[in-house]
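Predict structure. Chain length: 284.
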Amino acid sequence: MKQFEYFSPKNVVETCALLKEFENDAQILAGGTDVLIELRKSSVKPPRAIIDINRLNELKGITETESEIIIKPLTTHTELGSSSSIKKHARLLHIAAHVIGSPQIRNRGTIGGNIMNAAACADTVPPLMALDATVKLLSVNGERIVPIIDFFIKPYQTIAIKNELLMEIRFPKLLDSMKSMFLKLGRRNALAISRLSVAAILRKSDSGLIQEVRIVPGAAFPKWQRMTEAEKILVGQKPSKELFIETGKRVSEAMISFTGRRWSTEYKEPVIAVLVRRALETCQ
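Prediction complete.
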């Protein structure tokens, strides 16, 4: 049986002190849907300490200001999916929360865990990046706020250091004129890890021209990123199927330029283009 010390801190201050004490050899336990699976693997060396933060109510909940939504990291995917604030002001995140795993996973898994685990298939990250979210990190040395677009280095690695605790995720509310969509493709219709996904936000002017657009694919690049070059061809244009097809092709080309051609490219190349087109069409 694997040996480790188990801690259940009473507050954030105690949590940060434990993270500092164990430095690179502590593991935060939130929902546990990823951590517990890893701990069961015979090839994985356990950390010296497991720090269970599930009892920290200060890390739970969704609040809103006049202009922003603030999500605490222990908010579950079920809570995201049932939040009227998320549904109204960040529809693409609301949709993403509903297609993560199974009801059991959504009841346990947290948005903080989805972000900090940094798996390429994480369903909440593309919507959060499209929403221009920021994350707040806390340690015994103080706090810092990082745009989520700068947060990820590569799959399973972020810029957070080992003694930092995720405190909140914050993003501006979408304007009423901003339409959004999240589409995901898995190997089956439920309980599926994303093979590819797309988060999209589109805003049209009073004259019907595209005024602003944001496109973030998931599971397509080494790390998540905005498709700025593809977005540029849309701004100032009248929405059309042909325009959205061309945008999808641009995203597909960008993916191949980053990843090169591999065994999965024949499948992914047309699929990501179609997902982008469908997401943009739904945003009209």
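Summary: The mean pLDDT is 92.
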